[in-house]
Design goal:
The protein has 336 residues and is mostly helical. The chain has a domain of 207 residues. It is 66% helix and 4% strand.
Length: 336
């Protein structure tokens, strides 16, 4: 294997596995697994594209988790609802932009259902989300003609993003399109949460009792926040179904874990840097991209794909624990 000359001596003895993969793109052996840096580099554009699409979904999770301070599990259901509505409308001749709008409306209705369960029926938000998620499984099947999945061909339908164009140079590249849509979503949310109505949502999440004392209808604010959140999730779902060329009734399973991972990664890495609301939303999208890059690297290292859910849970657990560990370390120094 070709060796690279360094300006300083490298203590290779400290690396028992001897991993000089950053020096060469030639395949090499690691624990019986053949690794090729070129294959990783070729896979990274796809990981970035998926990260940006899921980043839009993570922004929806951020609204409920951070802004409203609600644990909403509707996401696992609405992440399939948007794609199902969009794909089925396009398969029946609807315009692609109209299908996207209808997908968002369907997601907002899912959020409305959770909001009504919580505010009008007194069901705790986490249980209300579970009930909606459970209902959406049957609803999504009905939307797709009681089939578990439906395909849509990029050659026959004008999909806004497609995995086929992930290495293309131009506006058809899903990374470029996803960045543009992400910028529009962040811009609209930044404007909305600066209005009086948006500020009432933020106040409700910060202190519901004080908000009610100031005359804010907190139940209405929670319902509206849940609708906006799941509408954004449904938009991400529609884009994901375009990107992968099909919609599946189970494609939202575990979505809340990915969304929380992006939110928590952003909070840990950019929490002290990004103070502006728009920057915080941008950080969430970057968190989703970083999450998918980490997943891609781990897959490249030979992890069994059946263990991805376990890996996702571990990533979330570690990033959740980082602030706690930091606080304990500071407290330990203070006592010392």
């Amino acid at each position: 294997m070709r060796q690279q000359h360094f300006l300083f001596p490298v203590p290779w003895a400290l690396f028992p596995l001897s991993i000089p993969f950053y020096c060469s793109t030639e395949p090499y052996q690691l624990g019986g697994i053949t690794l090729n840096l070129t294959s990783l580099l070729n896979a990274l554009p796809g990981a970035v594209a998926q990260g940006l699409i899921w980043g839009i979904m993570a922004i929806g999770v951020y609204i409920t988790y951070k802004v409203l301070d609600l644990a909403d599990l509707t996401v696992d259901g609405s992440m399939a609802t948007g794609g199902a509505v969009c794909v089925m409308l396009m398969l029946n001749g609807a315009n692609v932009w109209l299908a996207l709008v209808c997908a968002m409306i369907a997601g907002m209705l899912a959020g409305l259902m959770t909001g009504v369960f919580h505010t009008a029926m007194g069901i705790p938000p986490i249980l209300a989300g579970i009930l909606t998620q459970l209902s959406l499984y049957s609803i999504n099947l009905a939307i797709m003609g009681f089939k578990a999945n439906q395909g849509i061909n990029v050659n026959k339908y004008p999909l806004i993003v497609s995995q086929r164009n992930v290495r293309a140079v131009g506006l058809e590249n899903p990374i470029v399109i996803s960045l543009l849509i992400l910028a529009v979503v962040i811009g609209l949310l930044y404007w909305f949460f600066g209005t009086e109505l948006g500020s009432s949502l933020r106040a409700t999440g910060a202190n519901a009792a004080m908000s009610r004392a100031q005359g804010i209808n907190t139940n209405r604010a929670k319902i509206l926040g849940l609708m906006i959140s799941n509408g954004i999730v449904a938009l991400s779902s529609a884009m994901l179904s375009h990107y992968q060329g099909f919609v599946d009734v189970n494609m939202g399973r575990g979505a809340i874990v990915i969304g929380l991972a992006a939110v928590i990664i952003s909070d840990v890495i950019f929490g002290k840097l990004f103070r502006n609301f728009a920057l915080k939303l941008t950080g969430v999208a970057i968190g989703a991209v970083l999450y998918y890059i980490v997943i891609q690297i781990v897959l490249w290292l030979g992890l069994n794909t059946n263990l991805l859910k376990l890996l996702s849970a571990l990533i979330v657990a570690v990033f959740l624990a980082v602030p706690y560990w930091k606080a304990n370390m500071k407290g330990g120094r203070g006592h010392a």
